[in-house]
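Minutes, project check-in
Item: structure for the 153-residue chain
Input as provided by the requester:
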Amino acid sequence: PYIVSKICYNLNALSPFPNHKFPSFAAYFKEKYHIDVKNPTQPLLQVKAMSNRLNCILPRGATLHGSKHEKRDMMGKTEEHLVPELCIPQDFPAPLWYKASLLPTILHRIICLLQAESLLADIVTGMGVEKLDLEVFHQTTPMWIWNPESTSS
């Protein structure tokens, strides 16, 4: 999915294509996808692709498709333009798309925490301990958290 960031009134389907392999956006869609743009004078939409970086289930650096370098090169591409007549609008606010894309990660983390708690309960039960002294787990070095408001400029 893409999120429309702005309407580019200065660009249309007849405008030059960014990488110079195609004379125009209309030629790109015709040659690459065999689609004729019916209204080539309509303004283009500047869009941002929704990132899969929000999905934290995979370890950092792991990819489903392509190499890590290919993904980094693709992420460097900041502007994409689409022809409006070739898009399917979704009546769903963009901020909710972002929040919904985090749900698999959040649910995965909750499941892992519940499984860890279940494993701990099984271990305690297997050891025959009636009550577990949790103070032992809390006697660790304090974690320091950076607060940008507390730093002086």
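Outcome recorded: The CA atoms of residues 117 and 146 lie 29 Å apart.
No further action items on this chain.
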